[in-house]
Design a protein that fits this description.
Length: 383
């Protein structure tokens, strides 16, 4: 509910000031904007320099999260009943892990000039560097998957038997290309290069040195492909050159932020249809939040906006059942009827809120899918 309140406070400011809240706007950000960005896990409004295409996996995860939230709102359960969402809150079903933040971090390793020419059986060598500084200390990694895209050379398969893939943990990029870099590696795994596959997935949390300690702010790896003794020299040389040109890598990181993850609230099953509330009585009113109006459309990919809603209306005496009142509010309303100068009427406030999922670019130009609690008002009540 805290994030929604900040957004509602922010809307009047952003709708009267142009051109929004992006970095292009002169002057400092308002305190409300700073507070909301912090609630969203950002230090400042991102300004993507070269926006990367959204990976198909993250689009699928976003659409499935939208369907899951919509289904949860439609499900009618008795009070206190537990369903799948309550048993497994913040669960990324397609990946089979808990989490409410999904990031796809690109490799920023670039190319390395070796001090000495590579000797057989080394076929290709590539440094991998992933900036993980956007992860908050409270986030618990549940999946760290290295995705290697070998391109056409991988799809065709190695030209002979005995080809291997080797992955090592290495010092940071300040030592790349220097002798110290190559002598301080820690071997993580060696496995055969599978034939006929253009993509390889490696779960780094299963590897001791990575999974046994907190993730570093900068993860530096070295990938090596070693060729076997089979095959002719020309075929091996051509395959190595093709792999060196087409090899790309990215890191899929799923984390769980426990403070931002709760079971999806289920709509209570009504005993009997409630009579329509009068227009001035406490109830939800529609409020559509457009990220373009807020000035964040350049870094929020989806949704374009959402129906946040708000609560407004009176809580008259006597309180009716459709006003979702608790015993304390009923007593307060009764005391107001006796001594109105000493006791105010109950207030109309949100009593049930639901989350949304947002797909956006973060401050490091990474594509992020994040689940935010308490962003949509579903029910109001007198409290």
């Amino acid at each position: 509910m805290h994030s929604l309140c900040l957004l509602l406070l922010l809307l009047p400011l952003t709708l009267t000031l142009t051109p929004g809240l992006g970095r292009a706007q002169p002057g400092p950000l308002s305190p409300q904007a700073v507070a909301l960005l912090r609630a969203l896990g950002l230090s400042e409004p991102p300004a993507p320099r070269q926006p990367r295409p959204v990976p198909p996996l993250l689009w699928r995860l976003f659409r499935k999260s939208q369907e899951k939230l919509a289904a949860a709102k439609e499900t009618q359960e008795p009070e206190g009943a537990e369903g799948p969402e309550q048993a497994q809150p913040c669960h990324v079903e397609e990946l089979g892990v808990p989490g409410n933040i999904v990031r796809l971090v690109p490799d920023r390793g670039g190319s390395v000039q070796l001090e000495e020419p590579a000797l057989p059986p080394l076929c290709a060598e590539k440094p991998l560097f992933f900036n993980l500084s956007a992860l908050a200390p409270e986030e618990q990694p549940t999946l760290v998957r290295l995705e290697l895209h070998l391109g056409p050379a991988g799809a065709q398969g190695p030209p002979g038997p005995g080809w291997e893939l080797s992955l090592s943990l290495a010092p940071g990029p300040q030592l790349w290309g220097r002798q110290a870099h190559w002598h301080h590696r820690q071997l993580l795994l060696t496995q055969p290069l599978p034939p006929g596959r253009d993509t390889i997935h490696l779960d780094l949390l299963d590897l001791g040195p990575v999974g046994a300690s907190p993730l570093p702010r900068n993860l530096s790896l070295v990938l090596e492909i070693l060729h076997g003794s089979g095959g002719d020299g020309n075929g091996t040389e051509a395959a190595c050159a093709s792999l060196g040109r087409s090899l790309e890598a990215s890191l899929l990181v799923v984390t769980l932020h426990p403070q931002q993850c709760r079971p999806v609230a289920r709509r209570r099953r009504a005993v009997a249809p409630a009579a329509p509330a009068p227009d001035r009585v406490c109830r939800p009113h529609q409020l559509y939040v457009s990220f373009r109006d807020v000035g964040w459309h350049d870094w929020i990919i989806a949704p374009r906006g959402f129906m946040a809603n708000y609560c407004r209306g009176s809580c008259p005496f006597p309180l009716a059942t459709q006003l979702n009142s608790v015993n304390h509010a009923i007593l307060q309303s009764l005391m107001h009827s006796v001594a109105p100068a000493q006791t105010p009427l109950p207030c109309c406030i949100p009593i049930r809120l639901s989350p949304i999922s947002v797909l956006f670019y973060d401050n490091g130009d990474n594509v992020v899918l994040r689940h935010y609690e308490d962003m949509v008002v579903d029910e109001c009540g007198c409290r």
